[in-house]
Amino acid sequence: MTDLFPDLFAEVISPDPTANLLPYDGIVNDFGTVLDDAEYLYQALLQELPWQADVVTLFGKTHVTTRKIVWMGDAKRSYHYSGHTRQSTVWHPKVVHIKQRIEHRLAKAGVATTFNSCLLNWYPTGMDGMGYHADDEREMGMNPVIASVSLGATRKFAFKHNVTKETVALPLHAGQLIVMRGETQRHWKHSITKTKKVPDGRISLTFRKIMT
Ligand SMILES: O=C(O)CCC(=O)C(=O)O
């Protein structure tokens, strides 16, 4: 395993957003801390959003997760993953504001894109995670650009290559932005690994562009 930041709780100090964290078959860029109001946003989104349990079907078995989600986006969009279709709720103004800040940051780095949906995940403690999966649904097109922003507790984000099984992991801190793009979803799976060491909650916002 390539552990890019061996100390999970070390501060990420101005990483180079042009550097590719993956060794091959995809692109992941780390923009470091881009939200300086992450603590405020964590509390606000926790209180203000209609969090619901997620339903995941794997190998024919359906599970209700302790992780909670909100799927937000432009009107009348639906999105299919893990065997289930979700309808988006209307944009929350604070999420729209985060989206605009992320799009602006990406444009400055030459990754010009706009997002029309966002999956928010709330992990109440470190014992809530998300297993290895790829965001490779047809609705997102061939090589989707997915921007992921973290709020709350630091958690480990791990990638595993489909064929070589090589892994790459990095901690995601409050306010940090990473972007997955290129062929990443075709060749790598990603996960939020569970841990007993993190008692606190975390929210991730993954901004995507769904094709009509
Ligand atoms: O919580 C995260 O950072 C990962 C979320 C994720 O993998 C997803 O929404 O597909």
Distance between the termini: 38 Å
Instruction: Please name the CATH topology.
Output: Jelly Rolls
Classification by helices and strands: mainly beta
Name of the top-level CATH class: Mainly Beta
Give the helix/strand layout.
Layout: E1 2-3, E2 27-33, H1 38-48, E3 52-58, E4 61-73, E5 78-81, E6 84-87, H2 93-108, E7 117-123, E8 130-133, E9 146-152, E10 155-161, E11 167-172, E12 176-181, H3 184-187, E13 188-192, E14 202-208
Parallel strand pairs: 1-11
Antiparallel strand pairs: 2-12, 3-4, 4-7, 5-6, 7-14, 8-13, 9-12, 9-14, 10-11, 10-13
The structure holds 2-oxoglutaric acid.
Question: What does this entry look like structurally?
Answer:
With 212 residues, this protein is mainly beta. The chain has a single domain (2-208), classed as Alpha-ketoglutarate-dependent dioxygenase AlkB-like (Jelly Rolls), CATH 2.60.120.590. The protein is built from three helices and 14 strands. The chain binds 2-oxoglutaric acid (AKG). Residues 119, 121, 130, 135, 148, 157, 190, 192, 204, 206 line the site of 2-oxoglutaric acid.
Tags for this model:
212 residues, mainly beta, seven-stranded antiparallel sheet, five-stranded mixed sheet, 3 helices, 15% helix, 41% strand, binds 2-oxoglutaric acid
